[in-house]
Structures are given as C-alpha cells and as structure tokens.
Design a protein that fits this description.
The complex is a heterodimer of chains A (about 350) and B (about 270).
Chain A (H helix, E strand, L loop, with lengths): L2 H26 L22 E6 H6 L1 H8 L5 H10 L3 H4 E8 L9 E6 L3 H9 L5 E6 L2 E6 L7 E5 L6 E6 H13 L8 H8 L7 E6 L9 E3 L9 E3 L3 E9 L4 E9 L2 H20 L6 H8 E6 L2 E8 L1 H7 L16
Chain B lengths: L9 H17 L2 H10 L1 H11 L11 H26 L1 H8 L3 H5 L5 H32 L6 H32 L4 H9 L16 H6 L11 H5 L5 H25 L7
Helix pairs in contact in B: 1-7, 2-7, 3-4, 3-7, 4-7, 4-8, 4-9, 7-8, 7-12, 8-12
The chains are: A alpha+beta (about 350), B mainly alpha (about 270).
Chain lengths: ~350, ~270
C-alpha cells in the first residue's frame, strides 16, 4: 500500500473515531435534553409559559459556590428535618429542577418539576400528615395532593409518572394540566414556538439557565438618567429587549452568559454601549477598590446582529473581595459599678 | 482503444494527477514540518492538562483554551500559512523544477491538472489539521468544568470551519501561484497586513476572508483595546455564502488563467 494512503487512512481513523466518540457522548449523556437544555419531561409545561429556568442541582451542590454557602451556615435547617422525616435529602436526591411561569400571573402561573430519587411512600406520608388543609384526589389515576383546596392560592403536588423520580408542584390547575399531558403523551410547550426557539439557542449542559420573553423584563425601568443630567436633566431611553437568555456555571469560576434580543441591530449596539459604559464607570472606582480592576477583564460585551451578549468570568476570590466587609463588633460599655 | 486525438477525460486525468501529487505532497519534509506545526495545540493541551491547569487563572477552562486555539491559532494563523505554503507551490514548484513542460505536453487538460493538484493539497492539509483538532478537543473537553456532550456541537462546527478555511485560502493562494512567479511574499503580506483589516470598524472587515471565517465559529476570545471595541460578528449564513462564492471564483480564475497562460521557463 502506498505510504500516502496509509497516512490518509490513519488520519481518517483518528477523525472518525473522535467523531464517533463525540456522537456517543452526545447521545448517551444522562442529562440529554429534548429542546436545548430542557429535558423531555419539561415539555409538559403549559403552552402559555413565558419563562423557564433550569438548575442542575448535582453540579450546583458540587460547586465551590455551594461549598462556601454551606460552610457559612447557609444550609437550611429544613433539609435536615426533611431528611429525618422522609429520608429525602435535596442535596443528594435531587438531580434537576425546572421552574416555569408567567410573571403576570404570579404564583398562579408557576409550576416546578423536580427530577431525583424519591421514596414515594415516605414522602406521601409526610405530605398527608402535614396539616388539616391537605387533601388528596386522583387525577388520571395519579394521586394529587392539594393544599388549601378551594381557597385562593391553592397549590398541589403530584408524582409525575409511575417511576419515583419526577415530582411536579405548583397551582392546582398547572399541576393537573402537567399530569394530564404526561399521561396522555402531550407536549404543550412545543406549541409555544417563540419559547422553543429561545430554548434551542441555549447550549445544553449549563449548571443553571433561564429563557424568557419580554414579560420577564416588564418590571425593569425603561429609562435611566443621562450622565451629568442633574435633577431636571435628560434621560436615556433603554432599548427594549424582546427576549432574554441566561446560562451559567459555578465551577471552577462563576461564569454567566446573558444574551438579550433587541428589536434591531442599532438597539443592540446602543444597549451594548450602555453596558460597556457601566463597566467603564465601575472600573473608574478601581482606585478605591482594586478588585474592580479585575472585573473589567472578567466581563466582555459583544453584539451579533440584533443580539447583545454579556459574558462574565469571575473567580471566587474576586467575588469575596467585592463582598461588603462585616464591621468589627463594638464592645459594649461596661456596666456602671453599684 | 482510446481516441488519441482527444485529451484524457477530465475525471480520469484529475484522478491520476491527484494520486501522483498526493504521494509527493503527503510524504515530504514540508508535510512533516507543517504537520508538527499544526499539532502544536495538541502539545499545549497536554501541557495544560498535566501542568498548567493548577497554575492558570481559573477562568480559563479547557474549553476556553480550545476556543482560543481554534479561533486564534488555527483559523487566523496556522491554516492560512499551511494553505500559503502548499497552494502557492502547486504550479510554482513545477515551474521552478522545470517539470511543467512534461506535464502540460501530456494529453491532459490543464484544468484537470490544477484540479487534481488542488484536491491533493486539500486532502494533505485536512489529514494534517483535522486529527490535531479532534485530539486537542478531547484532551481539553474532558478537563474539569467542561461538559463533553455540551461541547460536541462545537467540535462538528469547528471541523467544518477548519476545512472551509483550508478551502478558501487554498483557492486564493492557488490563484496567486498561477499568477505570480514568486507568490510567497505577496501571500504573507495579504495574511498579515490586509487581513488585519478584519479588526477595523464599519464595512471594511467584509473585504477580508478572516472576518467571515471567525463569524462562523462560536468561540469569541475576549479581545482587548481596538479589537474588542470594533469586534464585529458578521452573519453566519451570509458568511458561508460569501466564502463559498469566493472559493468558486478563485478556483475558476486559477483554472482559467492556468489553462490559457503561456509558460516560458527560464533557460
């Protein structure tokens, strides 16, 4: 065989093997998603959902961020009590959490899906003995636990499926709809083409992520004071965003990517310039806070057609330096002698 | 019995030239040197995993390093240089070695000669570049803080962009090779002077090849100073169309010029 053919075959073998391994990793990934980062069970979310958030709890708990949080006494006491009652430890037994909702509906529009390992019997017992206002009913042959049924703000919890690994919580209507979709094989979220197209743009595998349309930003101000404007001075009109995507990692540094879809390229450029201005203003403070100088290198703002992308990579040391220092305790004055 | 009054069919002659050129190109000192050059990122990746990961700033993960290597090392510098050294020599080597006469007096279309040589160049450079990219990816994507599955789409896209880089620069430098007697210096000037215009504001970057190529990769190494201020990301679909059109144009021009030009070799 000619030497050149040997080299070509060797090169093709390396590339072919690499691509096969890559495809295998993609297909066999346990957190493989159905749409972007959203797992298959997330497709039962309501069609009128305006935002979806996801948290990879395993990676979150294993991150230095959580280690610092837990070491500073932030671990809720409730976790220990919950484990004692139900054998369920959120830090160990929860893999993923999905939160979806509609900002205009508040708690009524919210629904949470939790994937993990649950002891259905113990959890059910704990829920049923939680209080007098807990009732149970069957929905699609599945037990539904209702809190404050018939009252405003009534909520519900149900196991989603026959396996003990999916839990859905939220308003009664939302939980019932999710259970119905699950058992009938429905995928109502796919009807929300705008949200689905946003989800498809999010890279799967992030520790946390969020996508939402402009209703998510409805409470944000639309103007800001112009520099040097004074009390009666001018205002800068902030370009409106049509959609927002956030992804983040917590290991080895805190990295956040925020992508906003503006109305057009000019609006995106304007927004990018405003953000760069803020970063520049912050770094002017570097004389008083040297750690802010590091922040300038940690944040970058780019535009791509009508999208603005803000990427931040912040080491934990910088975050700690930016936290307000606790003031030293004041020693109390000694009590007067009697 | 073949009709000897007609040239050998295009595909048959291109294939013959391809086989001959590939043997000479792939198994040569030039390929050894360029192969080692293109494999530098593999070495960087190994050193990163073994030594540097504990010393580098934590914000530079394996995937960030991979992105830098793809966008800045391969697409911006190494592959255009490889294309320059190979593609300019497709015809220039034959002229310098005075073997062109023997080639063009054969009953073989000149277009087939150039097509076969260009195909051999493409196969040679792809065999040198793509395995290095794949190995680098796996060395870096399996490091801490990186999800292999999430990064796989980047690998597919990057391999496509690397191939397109070799294609478009190869076509351009093949054209320069048939046009000029000494195309190396103009090629270097193009790469390191003209292509710098990709960092300028406004519409100027659209007149460079590298601006379109870097818009196809998803890795955006954070720039500093001017490059960050004016860093543009051009539309990816338009970039693909422009680069494809440029490749076709350069190749067509190269074939047309080579087919119609009279080569007078120095005595």
């Amino acid at each position: 065989m000619k030497r050149s053919r040997l080299v070509v075959i060797a090169a093709l073998s390396v590339v072919g093997l690499g691509l096969a391994l890559a495809l295998g990793a993609l297909v066999l990934d346990p957190a493989r998603a159905a749409v972007g980062p959203l797992p298959a069970e997330g497709l039962v979310l309501p069609a009128d959902t305006r935002f979806v958030m996801g948290l990879d709890v395993r990676r979150f708990v294993q991150s230095p961020f959580y280690a610092k949080f837990a070491s500073q006494g932030g671990r809720p006491q409730a976790f220990a009590e919950l484990e004692q009652k139900t054998g369920f430890n959120p830090e160990r037994d929860v893999d993923q959490v999905l939160i979806a909702g509609r900002p205009d509906k508040g708690r009524e529009g919210g629904v949470v899906i939790v994937r993990g390992r649950f002891d259905r019997y113990k959890l059910s017992q704990a829920i049923e003995s939680a209080g007098k206002r807990v009732t149970t009913k069957k929905h699609e042959g599945n037990p539904l636990y209702l809190f404050n049924e018939g009252l405003k703000g009534a909520s519900a919890v149900a196991f989603l499926g026959h396996d003990d690994d999916l839990l859905v919580m939220g308003s009664q209507a939302a939980v019932e709809a999710a259970v119905t979709s699950h058992f009938q094989g429905g995928t109502p979220l796919k009807q929300n083409t705008a949200l689905v197209s946003l989800l498809e743009r999010v890279k799967p595998g992030s520790t946390f992520w969020m996508v939402g349309d402009q209703s998510l930003l409805a409470q944000m101000p639309t103007t800001m004071p112009a520099p040097g404007g004074g009390s009666g001075g001018g205002q800068i009109q902030l370009p409106a965003l049509k959609a927002l995507m956030v992804t983040g990692e917590l290991d080895p540094v805190v990295s956040v990517d925020v992508t906003g879809d503006a109305t057009d390229a000019a609006a995106a450029t304007q927004l990018a310039d405003i953000v760069r201005g803020f970063i520049a203003l912050a770094t002017l403070q570097a004389a008083q806070k040297p750690e802010l100088k590091t922040l300038q290198n940690a944040v970058s703002v780019t535009t791509e057609q009508s999208s603005v992308r803000l990427s931040a990579r912040v080491p934990y040391e910088v975050l700690e330096a930016l936290q307000p220092k606790k003031s030293a305790g004041v020693t109390p004055a000694p009590a007067p002698a009697r | 019995m073949r009709d000897t009054s007609r040239p050998v069919p295009f595909l048959a002659s291109a294939r013959a030239v391809f086989g001959l050129s590939l043997e000479g190109m792939l198994w040569s000192r030039r390929s050894l040197v360029l192969g080692a050059f293109l494999a530098i990122p593999v070495l960087i990746a190994i050193v990163y995993r073994l030594v540097l990961v504990a010393r580098m700033p934590a914000e530079i993960t394996g995937l960030h390093l991979y992105g830098y290597l793809v966008a800045l090392f391969w697409v911006r510098n190494a592959l255009p240089l490889a294309a320059l050294f190979y593609a300019t020599a497709l015809i220039a080597d034959e002229v310098e070695g005075r073997t062109l006469t023997y080639l063009i007096t054969r009953p073989v279309r000149r277009s087939a000669i150039l097509a076969g040589k260009f195909a051999a160049y493409l196969v040679t450079t792809l065999c040198l570049a793509l395995p290095a990219a794949v190995v680098t990816f796996f060395v870096l994507a399996t490091s801490r803080g990186v999800s292999v599955a999430a990064s796989v789409p980047d690998l597919f896209r990057d391999l496509g962009v690397l191939a397109l880089t070799l294609l478009v620069y190869g076509a351009l430098f093949a054209l320069m090779g048939v046009l000029m007697k000494r195309p190396l210096l103009p090629g270097l000037l193009f790469l390191f002077v003209w292509e710098m215009a990709a960092n300028l504001p406004g519409y100027v970057p659209r007149f460079t090849i590298t601006a379109w190529l870097r818009s196809l990769v998803t890795h955006r190494p954070a720039g500093r100073g001017v490059s960050e201020l004016f860093g543009q990301v051009l539309p990816a679909d338009l970039g693909l169309a422009v680069l494809t059109a440029l490749t076709a144009l350069f190749l067509w021009l190269a074939i047309w010029i080579f087919s119609s030009r009279e080569y007078v070799l120095d005595q």
